[in-house]
Amino acid sequence: MELGGSLKAQKSLCVVLAFLGSNLVTLYLGLSWHSPLEAANLTLTDSNNIPHAMLGGDGSATLNTQVSFMVTLLNLTQAELHLTRLELSQLKQDLLASQELSKTLLAPGGYHFNTSFQENASGKAPDSAAQRFAHSARAESRELDEYTRMQTLPLGWSTGMAASEIVSPIGHACGNEANQKDLIRYMKYDPRGICPDDQGLAHTLTVHGCEPLPRRRCFARSPPHFNEPLPLPQSLWSIPSDDNILWTPYTCKSFACLNERKKKKVFEDCIDCFELQGREKQRWTKHTSDLDFSIDEVLLLKPGSIRIGLDIGGGTGTFAVRMREKNVTIVTTSLNLNGPFNNFIALRGVVPLFVTIAQRLPFFDNTLDIVHSMHVLSNWIPTNTLEFLLFDIDRVLRPGGLLWLDHFFCIQHQLDVTYMPLIEKLGYQKLRWGVGPKLDRGPDLQEVYLSAVLEKPLSRG
Ligand SMILES: *[C@@H]1O[C@H](CO)[C@@H](O)[C@H](O)[C@H]1NC(C)=O
Ligand SMILES: *[C@@H]1O[C@H](CO)[C@@H](O)[C@H](O)[C@H]1NC(C)=O
Ligand SMILES: *[C@@H]1O[C@H](CO)[C@@H](O)[C@H](O)[C@H]1NC(C)=O
Ligand SMILES: *[C@@H]1O[C@H](CO)[C@@H](O)[C@H](O)[C@H]1NC(C)=O
């Protein structure tokens, strides 16, 4: 594929440049000594090795022949250097071509090639590397181009949008070296037909930062024997039918299999979350420790005014279900990490949202009454990412809104040095605050849990 070719070329160029930088002299000598001289079996320092034709009749080299021999050598060297320059310039063109993709993917206008070289009415193959590249990328993912191409508004200038075009978004990391191949594969489909069975590919791209994914105009596959979901409130605590899930991307092919996982010694996220009658049924119903608050007590902190909110990384949606039973509407973000989490949440009758923790929250400023997160906001998240996330949570919380950090885990030292200062920077009032040891991986690690309910200041700015 042209893409891979360009990247390879880019790498080879780097190697060549590094080689040039550190070994310029060697390169020069290498070039002058190589093919022409070796073929003639010569070394410059040893006049005995000068070919017979170059020597005087008596076998001694005259000054003249030696000088002309040197000139020939220099001419050969020049020729070789010229050739090398040509190769370098070819590599440079390939590099530019690969930069072209990054640029077009990252440009504000999106993935949009200059039409004067993408369509050549004559149909003749394009000649520069950049043109070849643009041609093949476009051919390989015409749908990507169609999707991201800036579109002119048919009714002209829109005052509301302050624009006369519309641009469809795509995550900037979609153009990463690591994602390009997957992205082009993802965008290879039969337009207006049935999409490939590639939920796994979409998931991989998303968690690798290609978020949002481009839209596609094909029909997403659905399970072949989908049943109407159960009515509320039965749906809240019922495991749905296996028929309602498209199982292709997952190791398990049934809910029974998902629920068996906890008996095996395998590590999976949320290993017992699909088992609704077990631990899930107990969660947030009672205040059992300094770390475990009940939904009732938290709602009583603000009687009646907690109505809508967000649960970040909410597993199978049990927090939203419990809140729904209190007439509070919670949207649950979840990924489908080797299990149909989003489908399960939806079949229970609450709203799933398929976004990673890296994505800007799709809510407007000062809107939500509560944001909750259990286990997910923790020290596995790079501190920089976490800080942006906390500020984003602050943004979407309304004044006086609640941030419920539920079992945030880290090492005691990190809590003191990194996370406490980070949380305190938000300037929230601590309505509940508990720290306790986290022992599941042994006491030596000095891991702790923090559970807190924090209230956003009523005014700011
Ligand atoms: C070296 O090259 C130049 C031009 O490329 C040519 O005119 C000249 O005759 C060459 N000299 C020898 C010794 O080959
Ligand atoms: C498109 O490419 C052509 C030829 O390379 C160039 O002359 C022209 O300015 C480019 N147009 C835009 C909008 O970049
Ligand atoms: C299109 O093809 C013609 C004819 O082969 C060629 O002369 C021209 O340079 C091409 N134009 C572009 C933009 O590649
Ligand atoms: C939820 O709302 C319904 C309908 O308005 C009401 O009957 C019920 O008592 C409410 N439940 C709670 C826990 O407030």
TrEMBL record:
It is found in: Endomembrane system; Membrane. Keywords: Membrane, Methyltransferase, Signal-anchor, Transferase, Transmembrane, Transmembrane helix. It holds the Pfam family Methyltransf_29. Gene3D superfamilies: Vaccinia Virus protein VP39. It is a single-pass membrane protein; Single-pass type II membrane protein. GO terms for molecular function: methyltransferase activity. One of its GO terms (cellular component) is endomembrane system. It comes from the Eukaryota. InterPro entries: Prob_Methyltransferase, Put_SAM_MeTrfase, SAM-dependent_MTases_sf. The chain crosses the membrane at residues 12-33. GO terms for biological process: methylation. Belongs to the methyltransferase superfamily. This is Methyltransferase type 11 domain-containing protein.
